[in-house]
Automatic annotation (TrEMBL):
Its cofactor is Fe(2+). Histone demethylase that specifically demethylates 'Lys-36' of histone H3, thereby playing a central role in histone code. It comes from Ephemerocybe angulata. It catalyses: N(6),N(6)-dimethyl-L-lysyl(36)-[histone H3] + 2 2-oxoglutarate + 2 O2 = L-lysyl(36)-[histone H3] + 2 formaldehyde + 2 succinate + 2 CO2. Its EC number is 1.14.11.27. The lineage of its organism: Eukaryota, Fungi, Dikarya, Basidiomycota, Agaricomycotina. This is JmjC domain-containing histone demethylation protein 1.
């Protein structure tokens, strides 16, 4: 898998190394893995070539003037290895200035982030360690914290994960993708792009020993979908089950030749002491992260409203280079990962990453339906802090429309969706309605940007889709459905993660009428509640008992209760009457709706 070695000669040797690329070093073990750039040295007597790392004595090969192999030295005692006289160097210490970073008010010390962290209180992480076979959709339904806190899976067994071999290196990446392929590299000291890198140059850099690296760099954005490496990597099954790109983006519009969000397969290569400063993954996307070799240390901050506000203030300001974000939030948690570990990071978690040793990681980003509100909130923070579009989730709005189109069909078909998903759909619908309002009332440039993100192959009437989806999501969650503004919530009793089962009586009976639904706004409304009356009455049906629901049929029969004059007999009945009146203008006049509701509470004395 590795490319042929680069052969550089010692100054005393003739040519640029062995004439044949198949030449081997006599001192190498048969299974030794060649370095990308090998220094070779030629014996002046027998003209045999050796790897300097095999035959040398630790000296710099460039200092060699005349060299003999061990056999030739033993054969003739007059032969001796000689070295060039070293060039005179000034003993005066010179400071090397990094002018690019000085212009930004930064130093050239890549460890300044670690210095900033010294003495800070870091909490041990409270996150769950799980077995791979337990990370399933059932876990999402049964655990209210599922996909709301990071989880660590120490062994990949049962995750449905596929990875390259553990000895896969940067050299292998360059070989598979091409040594001249450009790669984005981050300068750790400035946390900004370092231009001019190729995978070949990066592989050479990673092959250097840590003490020879003049600067610390990091590769964190090499996406490999559609390449040979992608054939070696399969994300965990839970990720594939949840991922919006995987489940909602049309399969005919993915793959080679199509433009779609390529964020599912990243190869991350970090060297010793690399640091990635505090960030939230784009659009609040969740992350799966597998350590192939090496180790990583994560620092986490919970995405509470207060912490997110602190992050928004810190991000993109002078505070970013001068302030430890941990001082502005409630707590920082530390997680250490080693080879073979996998972590899933949920939406919105603020984190920084330290690399203790050279490390190879495979991971990816994904949006999902169990925390849509946080995803949209983070997207809004990105816009507020003017994050460039190239660093945001690609085609976020277009993907959201595909998701909306599918969930609208589910609602129309009375699908039984988990309550957390329904609440997320409402957040999604509110976001899309805001997009529609731009389409209807924004300036021409804004209208154009919104329209370009609407997938016309699926969404024919975007305003109708957004508003109908919001209407149906409100009903499913328990909100009233009138108007553009959210009404009051009717039912807060269901915990997160519990499905809301819709009875036949609750199912919309006019779904076919809502193909292009847009609710009309009422111009005025009033509610009056009459004083409650309490009496003793004979109930219409039996008192509920146990888990049986047989008692419901008698009560639903709408029979009249018989009121009694004799106190002490029957059941205490409290009855009140509520009157609702709503009005709005029509093309020809006024529409008025008058609704009368009777509410009865039957209380048996114990």
């Amino acid at each position: 898998m590795s490319s042929g070695p680069h052969k550089s000669r010692s100054p005393s040797a003739k040519g640029n190394g062995p004439d044949s690329s198949e030449e081997t070093c006599p001192l190498c073990a048969p299974d030794v893995k060649l370095l990308r750039k090998e220094d070779w040295v030629e014996c002046e007597a027998c003209n045999t070539w050796y790897h300097w790392r095999c035959a040398g004595n630790g000296e710099d090969v460039k200092r060699v003037a005349k060299w003999f192999c061990k056999s030739c030295l033993e054969a003739d005692s007059s032969r001796t290895v000689t070295f060039k006289t070293p060039a005179r160097k000034s003993t005066r210490k010179r400071n090397v200035q990094d002018y690019a970073n000085l212009e930004e008010g930064l130093g050239s010390d890549s460890k300044r982030f670690l210095h900033m962290m010294q003495g800070k209180h870091i909490h041990p992480d409270p996150f769950k360690r799980m077995n791979g076979e337990d990370v399933t959709l059932d876990w999402l339904q049964e655990d209210e914290t599922a996909m709301l806190e990071p989880i660590i899976i120490e062994k990949p067994d049962g995750l449905g994960l596929k990875m390259p071999p553990s000895d896969f290196t940067a050299d292998d990446v360059a070989s598979e993708l091409g040594e001249h392929t450009a790669v984005e590299v981050m300068d750790v000291a400035s946390q900004s792009d370092a231009p001019g890198w190729t995978l070949g140059k990066w592989a050479d850099y990673m092959e250097q020993s840590p003490e020879k690296r003049e600067r610390i760099y990091n590769v964190i954005s090499l996406e490999v979908s559609g390449t040979k490496i992608a054939e070696m990597v399969v994300p965990p099954k839970i990720v594939r089950d949840l991922d919006w790109v995987e489940t909602f983006w049309p399969s005919t519009r993915k793959g080679k030749g199509n433009v779609y969000p390529k964020v599912q397969l990243y190869c991350l290569m970090g060297v010793e002491t690399a640091w990635t400063d505090w960030h939230i993954d784009f659009a609040g996307s969740s992350v799966y992260y597998h350590i192939l070799s090496g180790s990583k240390v994560f620092y986490f901050i919970r995405p509470t409203p207060t912490n997110l506000a602190a992050y928004e203030k810190w991000s993109g300001s002078d505070l970013q280079n001068q302030t430890w974000l941990g001082d502005m939030v409630d707590a920082v948690y530390k997680v250490e990962l080693t080879a073979g570990n996998t972590m899933i990071i949920p939406a919105g978690w603020i984190h920084a990453v330290y690399t203790p040793v050279d490390t190879m990681v495979f991971g990816g980003n994904f949006l999902h339906s169990y925390n849509i509100a946080t995803q949209i909130r983070v997207r809004n923070i990105e816009i507020a802090t003017q994050v460039p579009k190239k660093f945001r989730f690609p085609m976020f709005s277009r993907l959201s429309w595909y998701v909306a189109d599918k969930y609208l069909k589910d609602f129309r078909n009375h699908a039984d969706l988990p309550h957390r998903v329904v609440e997320g759909i409402l957040a999604l619908a509110n976001f899309l309605v805001s997009e529609v309002r731009i389409l209807e009332n924004g300036n021409e440039q804004s209208k154009k940007e919104v329209k370009e993100q609407i997938p016309s192959d699926r969404v024919k009437d975007a305003p109708a889709v957004a508003r109908e989806l919001r209407w149906r999501a409100r009903l499913a969650v328990g909100y009233s459905s009138e108007g553009e503004d959210e009404g009051s919530k009717q039912d807060r009793s269901r915990p997160n993660g519990v499905k809301r089962k819709r009875s036949d009586s609750e199912a919309p009976m006019v779904s076919s009428l809502f193909k292009n639904f847009r609710p009309k706004k009422w111009d005025g409304s009033i509610q009056r509640t009459e004083n409650s009356e309490t009496t003793i009455a004979k109930p219409s049906g039996p008192k509920p008992s146990g888990d049986s629901d047989e008692w419901t049929s008698a009560w639903l029969d709408d029979g009249n209760s018989e009121e009694m004059d004799v106190e002490g007999s029957g059941v205490q009945l409290t009855r009140r009457r509520e009157l609702y009146t709503k009005v709005r203008k029509t093309e020809k006049g006024v529409e008025r709706q008058k609704i009368e509701r009777t509410v009865e509470n039957w209380d048996w004395d114990e």
